[in-house]
Structure formats: C-alpha cells, structure tokens
Fold this protein.
Amino acid sequence: MKSNLKRIINQKLISIVGVSLAIFIDLLLSKLMASWSYSWLPVQASSAAPYVDNLFAFETGIGTFIFLGCSGVIGWVLIFNRAPKYDESFGEPIEGNTNLEIVWTVIPLLLVIAIAIYSTNINSTLKNLGSKSKYDPQKDLIQNSELGQNISDAPIDVIARQWNWEFVYPEGFSSSELHLPINNKINFRLISKDVLHGFYIPAFRLKQDIIPGSIIEYSLTPTRAGVYRLRDSMFSGTYFSENQTNVIVESKDSYQNWIHKTVKKVPVNGLNQAGILYKKRLEKGDRGWATVPPNPPPMVNEPGDYQQPHEG
Amino acid sequence: MTITNYDERVLKASHPVPGAPNNWRRFFGFNTDAKVIGIQYIVTALFFLLLGGLLGMLIRGELITPPSDLFDPSVYNGLYTMHGTVMLFLFLFPVLSGLTNLLVPPMIGAPDMAFPKLNALAFWLVPVFSIVLLASFFVPGGPASSGWWSYPPVSIQNPLGHFLNGQMLWIVAIGLSGVSSIIGALNFVTTIIQMRAPGMGFFKMPIFIWTVLAAQILQLLGLPALTGGAIMLFFDLNFGTSFFNPETGGDPVLFQHFFWFYSHPAVYVMVLPVFGIFSELFPAYSRKPLFGYKFVAVASFGITILSLVVWVHHMFYTGTPMWMRNLFMFTTMLIAVPTGVKVFAWIATLWGGNLRLNTPMLFCLGGLFNFIFGGITGVMLATVPIDIHVGNTYFVVAHFHYIIFNTIAFGIFAGIYHWFPKFTGRMFYEGLGKVHFALTFIGATLNWLPLHWAGLLGMPRRVASYDPEFAIWNVIASIGAFMLGVASIPFILNMVSSWSRGKKAPPNPWGAIGLEWLLPSPPPHENFEDDIPTVLNEPYNYGLNKPFVFDEEFYISKALNDS
Ligand code: HEM
Ligand SMILES: [Cu+2]
Ligand SMILES: [Cu+2]
C-alpha cells in the first residue's frame, strides 16, 4: 500500500520534472528564435521599422513556443503511442476535460487581447496614414506651392502610373528616384493616375496602397542612410513587377546639394523599364496576351541610377 | 433509449430516380444519386487539381530565375490568375461539395439529399462554368489576368476593347459557380436540418456534419455580396458603368469590401469541412473518443460567426481608417480562440491513443502540423503593423498555401483515402499511399516554407520577375513544386488501380464509429432504406462501451451479409 503510493508520487514527480524541463527548453528555443527573427528582415531604415521588428520578434517567440509545444506533443505520441501492427485495441477512453477546455480557451483569449493591445499602441505611435480626399485624375495637380508655406513640410507628390514612378518635389522639379533627408519627417501625397498601386519600401516596413481618384496623405521618417528599393506592391497589370525604383536616404547636406543640383538640370526621360520591355515585345511581333501599353516615361530632372546596388 | 428529434419526413423524403444503371456509365450522365454525384464532383475536381497544379508549376518555372524569361509578363499574369481561380473554384469548392455529397446522407442516415434534382443541377453547373473559364484561354487577348481578386480598375481595363474578353468570361464563370454553390448550400442545409436519423439530435451529429452546416450557412450569407460585386464589375467592364471606375466617379475600394465580405468567409467554407475530417479521423485512428466533442462542435459556429466580421483584414493598407484597422485586427485575432479549441482537442485526442499511421492518418497529422504553423503566421498577418510590411508579399502566399494546400488539400487527401473503401468498395494500396504522402509533405514544405523569408525580405506577390536577392528562396520553392507534380503519379496510380482491381473492402475496414460504417461498402442506393438506425449516443465512443445506435449488431451483420 505504502510503496504503491510512493510509486505514484514518484511518477508524478518525474512527469512534473519532465514537463517543466520541456517547457524550459521550449521557452529557451522560443527566445532564441525571437532574437534570430530580426535577421530575417531587411535593414531597419525608418522610425517605424524597430517597432514592427520588435512586434514581429514578439510574435515569433510566442508562435515558436506554441508551435514547438504542439508539435512536441505530436512527436511524443508518434514515438510512444503507435499501435503495433494489426492491433486495433482502444486507447484510453478520455472524453474530455472541462477545466482543460477552459484553460485553452482563456489563455489564447488573453494572449490575443494582449497582442491586439500592444499592436494598437504601436499603430497610434506610428500614425503614418493621413487623410484621404477626392481627386480627379483627369485634372492636373494643384500646384504644391499653394499648400504648405514652410517648404520643408510641404509634401512630396508620389505619382504612380502603369508603370513608372514620379516624385514631384515642392521645390518644383521631379525625379524618378526618391531622395529623402535622414531623420526628417517627410510628408507625401500619394496619387495614382490609372489603377491601384502600392507604395512599398521594405526597408522602411511601410506600405500604402495608392487609390486612383483619391489623394492619400502619408508621412514617414527615414533613419538610416542608404539605397533601398521602392516596389509597387498592389498588382497593377502587365509590367507590375518592373514597377520599382530606388529610395536614397542621405544626410541633410547632401540632400540639399542634390536639390540645388537637380533643380537646374534639364528634364529628360525618366526611368522606364516597362517601356523598354514593351518595345522588345513589339519588336518580337507583339506576342503574348493583351496589355495596355505602358505610359511614356515622365520628363524628370533626375532619371536616377536604377542599377546602383541597394540594401533591402 | 432516447429517441429525440425524429423527423417523420425522413422516410417520406423524395427518393431518387430508382434503378439507376449500376455501371460506370452512370457517372457520365444526369444522375440524382448523391453518391454518384459525389464521385462526379470529386473526379472532376481532381482533374482540375492536376490542371491547376500544372499552371502552378508553369509559374514556378518562370520564377526559378529572377528575370521574366519564360513567358511574357502578360502571359505570366494570366497564368497565375487562372491558377488561383482553377484551384479555388474548379478544384476546392467542387471537391468539398463532392465529399459533402458522399458523406452527409449516410452519416445522418438519410436516403439521399433533400433535393436530388437540384443536387445534380448544382453539379452539372461545374463543367459548364469550367468550360466558360477555360475557354478564356482561347479568346483574343487571353484569359483574365488581374488576379483572383479581380480588383478594379485593372480588371476593367480591357485592353482590346472586345465585348468577349477573358475577364468577362471569368466573371460569368464565377457567377455560375456562385449559383451552383447556393443551390448546393440550400440542399446541404435542408438535408442536415430535416433528414437526420431518429435520435440524432444536434449534439449527436458527427463533427463533419457540424462543420458542413457551419460552412454552408456561411455560403448562404456571403455569396450574395460576391454576386452583387461581380454583377457591378461586369457592368463596369462591359457597359461602361462606374460603380468602381474612379475616372467616372466610382470607388474601386468599394469592390474590395464586396469581394472580401464573401471571400474571407469562403476560406472558412473550405477549411471547416477539413476540420470535420480531422475530427472524424483522429479519433478513429487513435482509437479514442474525440476530446471535448461539444466544444469542438460549438467552436465551428464560433468560427462561422466571427468569420463574417473580419474581412477588412485584407484592407489594412488600402487607406482604411485606424479605428477600423484596430477593430478588424481584434476580431481576426479572436478567430484564433475557437480554432485553438479545435487544435488542442485534436492533440488531446492523440494523447494516450493507440495510433495507426496509415495513409489517411499520415495526411491528417501532416495537415494538423502544417495548420498549426499556418495559424501562427495567420495571427502575424492579422497584426496591423506586421501586415503593413508583409501584406501583398510572398509571406502571404506562403501563409495561405500553408492553409489551402498544406492543410486543406492534405485533409482532403486524408478524407479521400479514409472513405475510399466505403464508396468504391475497394481497398487502396497502402504502400503507394505512403509514397504519395511522403512526396507531398516534402514537396509542399520545400515549396512554401522558404517563401516566408522571401516575403519578409520584401518580395511582392504576383510578380513575373524579381530582384536577384530573392533567387535562393525561389529556386528551393520551384524544386518543391516539381516534386508535388511527381507526387500526383502515385496518387493517380493508386486511385485508378485500386478502384479497378483493389482488394474488396469490408463494411468497416478501420473499425470506425459512424452511421456510414454500418452500411455495406459501397452502400446500397438508398443507404439504410427503411431500416434507419436510431441514434443513442454521441459519436466517437471509442473504447467506451456505449453503442452509437440501437441494435448495432443487427446493422453490422446486415452490412456484412449485403456486401
Ligand atoms: C502544385 C502546387 C501549387 C503551386 C506550385 C502553387 C504556386 C503558386 C504560385 C507561385 C502563386 C503565385 C503567387 C503570387 O504571385 O501571388 C500561387 C498563387 C495562388 N495559389 Fe497556388 N500553388 C499550388 C497549389 C495551390 C492550391 C492547391 C491552391 C488552392 C486550392 C492554390 C491557390 C492559389 C491561389 C488562390 C493563388 C492566388 C492567385 C492570385 O494571386 O490571384 N494553389 N500559387
Ligand atoms: Cu481573410
Ligand atoms: Cu489566412
């Protein structure tokens, strides 16, 4: 009788130690995975990036914990609970356990509420998206100068077309490349001349669809000098994947230099990968399925250098 | 003995046309027998899985190298659009309707579906809209190429200006598919509500029936929104109206609301029956009762209700105001709770079981494993700041293939293997099945696991070309895709040869509990005919010594004698 009780206690002890050990290892691996997850993302080049990456690491940690926990149990039963061949006998006939059900309803509930609150806070910190107003794509843009008095607050107009990007600066010139001064909050007006496009700079962790018929105000703060890709992220038709360009974040001085230099430049054809490909297509007899022809490249003061290496 | 909820109409339900010819030819005509229709659906759908898989491999062929060198980008766009459309509307929905047709009447003890003729009509719409859709490959200008979302204004650009164009055929096909789904849904819901065996109260229904009911109610609630959106899109495209056309004052974002109001729940229409399959198979192959039957059952409806109020999570970066993004982030994350209840219940069902790792169980376990992974990336996508970075990138493609292929298609394969003996009367070859599973699991993992990283690094989806830094992930993915192509060979071989000369199947080869297993394999024309069993207990009483139906012995020996 006594030794029986002892055996039961011993078994309980072993399983408690075992489960604790498993949870400890799971926690450790989840922590490792969370810190590793930063390396899966491009360089952090905007004030939003650290927030996004921390949140991602946090969810990677929680996710790893749950994933390893669940698959650990599955792995366990696969090893220890396999039926021998031709054995059709029953397992333990457990029908359920209301306490357990409550535990695994309430814990995930609290967990997602926590994640949602954490993310809601980040959303109100970041506040990249401004207001959205109607815009008639047939009409020309309101001149920038009519807007902000202070030229450094005045927005850069991002104009998306099938398939090129044009950035119109408040100083009155335009560029195929997006130059930005580091550590300054930059305002944009996102405008599409035809279909939906997406303004996406992975190194900034930011993306905003551009809606034809609307002007969307947007702002962000670059925090790291370098060359990054800007990609169209909302499918926009045939040459969608070619609709990318570079973002150049530079020091305030070299940004000012660039502006002074570029204002004086004679406008030339802007970046035009889609047009080049379309020309090739026409030369080869216009084979393929139907496409709207690409817009001619905009005349810009700065065509940029698409080939220069980019990080992220 | 408790007989509750016995509906007198069960025996008076309209019976299908008697005496359908009992040969292979019945599969090629207008047949009103749900078991024939089920197989018609499944075989048609599997054919389209092959076609959709071929299109998938073509796009993976293009993506094995960074530049767009295999096809013109216009062709790439058409191929990926058709791949998605074929997979969803020609493979997934039909294959699930097929399983539902096969399983619902026998599982609830009904002789057939409530409206056999409508049932056949719903099926015959599938080849009709499939032909409409596939015809678009041959019209001038090629097929629809604006993605399966068909977001305007791209979708209404109509470069050639012809009335007959690929996008227009696409809309017609989707509309007809919607009609077929509504007819199907009405039929399934009516059948389940009206034609259950005596004693089968709601809380004695198999979970598969619960999930079908939850899914089909979603169809009825959601499809009108999609249909409305599609009709307006059709008018914008072909008659120059301006519901969504900004040039004439329309609002393109409005379409997105119509579209996702249906298409988010549609994901649950597809995944719920697979949850049902998991809930049937895990107990059967673990030889244990389903852990927390009532919780699993009710969780299905928790998912149904929540899934109607999450659609804006597809629009976090379209200019949606912040309060709305926060709200829909919250509702989306709540779905993790009832889903978690199911996942934990399956795992608890496995715990302490006596696991038989045959092909259907392997697909279930693989599907569960993948689903846990896909569920976690799903919560990440619901998180607004993360979605703003990874939305519309390959992270999303990887996530939804983890759900749609690595979970849903796995569950469907599991279901096909599990019930194959029941409805064909033949056993499949276990060895080929295991080869199929191994190739599918490895191929699917190679195909979609690496793409998460491509997306995290910023590779947009729907691209025909990409920057070279993404090449490594894409090469691995393409190898996985071709492996999945190879995986279809043992599957086809198995199905064809087992059906034609496999070993004869006993009524209940897996020792499973459920009304369908009390029938001979294959079941007679009207299932239990006039001997409908009376259900006594919850299903899944493995090892509990509680009989599922009154006088079980009678049905077991009858099934044996009739086989
Ligand atoms: C051989 C297996 C498969 C391969 C190689 C494959 C590959 C792909 C690829 C490369 C894309 C393009 C992603 C993008 O650029 O956005 C895609 C999209 C898609 N796939 Fe698959 N896939 C496979 C199976 C499936 C299955 C089984 C389903 C559904 C049942 C499915 C549904 C979709 C959908 C809905 C899209 C989105 C299309 C769109 O963006 O409009 N795929 N697939
Ligand atoms: Cu959704
Ligand atoms: Cu999802």
In short: Chain A has a mean pLDDT of 91. The two ends of chain A are 69 Å apart (CA to CA).
